[in-house]
Design goal:
The protein has two domains: 9-58 and 283-415, no CATH class; 73-270, no CATH class. By secondary structure, it is of the alpha+beta class. The strands form four sheets. Strands 5-6-13-8-10-9 form a six-stranded mixed beta barrel. A two-stranded antiparallel sheet has the order 2-3. The protein has a two-stranded antiparallel ribbon with strand order 4-14. Strand 9 and strand 10 form a beta hairpin. It contains 13 helices and 16 strands. The two termini are 32 Å apart. The longest helix is centred in the last third of the chain and has 44 residues, at 277-320. Helix 2 runs antiparallel to helix 12.
């Protein structure tokens, strides 16, 4: 009995490539679904991770081991007076926290007003004005690169001095002019420039460099006016701890101290709120992570659509090549050889499409990172998952057409047109 000739894997691969090349348009359209699917998965995952990293860095720029205590509505006999009635927090509250809370390494109070006009010569800009104390630089880890921050003497005398954010300095003063010692006008009052702060960039919609700092005592008496029932009114204060593990203890201690000072018996009556930066980072990462997974899953659907396209094109290919299959089976090709060739074609299409998709996905992610100014991050796991999924989808999509081709009766196939 004559021995059936065997076909090597190399020969099957060469025949598959020749078949795909002879139908280049069909092959290209088949690959397109895989290319789009993998590129979308990699690009979306990369953009999501980049946005997550950028958001985390921005929040950490505010300090990852800090608490922000903000004023709520004041209360009279347990009844809320409404937002803006008067400030519930005072500078004296911040000073009490500094001296009585062991977990608080540093405390700095602030009083803030936005859209305040700053004038120098013929330059007129609107910026955020912050009245604060001498501890601000250490708690917020932002320091002057030119000149100095105001000192205790400036606080005691409510001196009309100002420290500029880096953006305000560039917007208000021409490059040739040294701002130190110059006078700028804030609400018809002259303030002498003491220093210029280092650049910190933007956090969300808030530009940390578009700020101007003056002594809290001057802000309270000259700009805002004191609307606290007693003491110096503030919008809130920042608290720095030695490390992130101390934040929970500091939050607990600060809450209890403020309730005692404000005669609050139950937490639901709190006239202040505390924001933990660690919680903010975790919440932000969770939201961005869920969004990335959701959009990545949608992009993954296109891989399945691409697999359906491969199956469809391969089924059409079986019909078109019925006579060729009949000839090959008549001269001795086995079912296994026919099956192997069609499976190989499906895998080759998905592999090449996967490679192109990976490159396109990386390029799209790189372009998005440069355009929108967030870190360029490429996940090896996303590449591996996307490429691996394309191979699996291509293989599964080729099984039914390959079995259909291998099952053709050679006599019937030879009679087909």
């Amino acid at each position: 009995m004559p021995k059936t000739p065997s076909i090597s894997l190399i020969e099957i691969l060469i025949m598959s490539l020749e078949s795909l090349w002879s139908n280049r348009l069909r092959t290209g359209l088949t690959m397109l679904g895989m290319v789009i699917g993998i590129a979308a998965v990699i690009a979306v995952t990369s953009v999501g991770q980049g946005v997550q990293l950028a958001t985390e860095r921005q929040i950490q720029a505010l300090g990852s081991n800090v608490l922000l205590v903000l004023s709520g509505a004041s209360r009279t006999r347990g009844v809320s007076q409404g937002s803006g009635s008067s400030s519930a927090l005072t500078w004296q509250d911040a000073q009490a926290v500094r001296s009585q809370v062991p977990s608080a390494q540093g405390v700095t109070a602030f009083l803030q007003r936005g859209n305040i006009q700053m004038v120098f010569d013929d330059q007129n800009i609107a910026s955020t004005l912050i009245g604060t104390d001498i501890y601000y630089s250490d708690v917020k880890t932002i320091y002057p690169t030119e000149g100095r921050f105001f000192n205790q003497a400036d606080m005691d005398t409510a001196a009309a001095v100002v420290v500029l954010g880096s953006k305000v300095r560039s917007d208000l003063f021409p490059t040739a002019i040294n701002p130190l010692g110059q006078n700028i006008r804030i609400q018809n009052r002259l303030y002498q420039v003491l220093g210029v702060m280092e650049s910190k960039g933007a956090v969300g919609t808030t530009d940390q460099d578009d700020r101007v700092y003056i002594p809290l005592t001057n802000m309270s008496s000259q700009i805002v006016g004191n609307n606290a029932i007693s003491g110096v009114s503030i919008n809130g204060f920042w608290i720095s701890a030695t490390d992130t593990e101390e934040l929970e203890a500091a939050q607990f201690q600060v809450s209890n101290l403020l309730r005692i000072r404000h005669n609050i018996s139950e937490p639901r009556f709190d006239d202040f709120r505390i924001i933990n930066q660690v919680d903010t980072i975790a919440a932000s990462n969770s939201i961005v992570g869920l969004f990335t997974v959701m959009v990545g899953a949608i992009a993954g659907i296109s891989l399945v659509v691409g697999g359906i396209g491969i199956a469809n094109i391969m089924l059409v290919s079986v019909v078109e090549r019925t006579r060729e299959i009949g000839v090959r089976k008549a001269i001795g090709a086995t079912k296994g050889a026919i099956l192997s060739q069609f499976l190989t074609e499906a895998v080759v299409v998905s592999t090449i499409g996967g490679c192109i998709g990976v490159v396109m996905g990386i390029l799209l992610a790189y372009g998005a990172a440069n355009i929108f100014a967030f870190p360029f991050v490429v996940s090896i796991w996303a590449i591996a998952a996307g490429f691996g999924l394309s191979i699996v989808v291509g293989l599964l999509a080729g099984v039914i057409p390959a079995r259909s081709a291998a099952s053709l009766d050679p006599i019937t196939a030879l009679r087909s047109d």
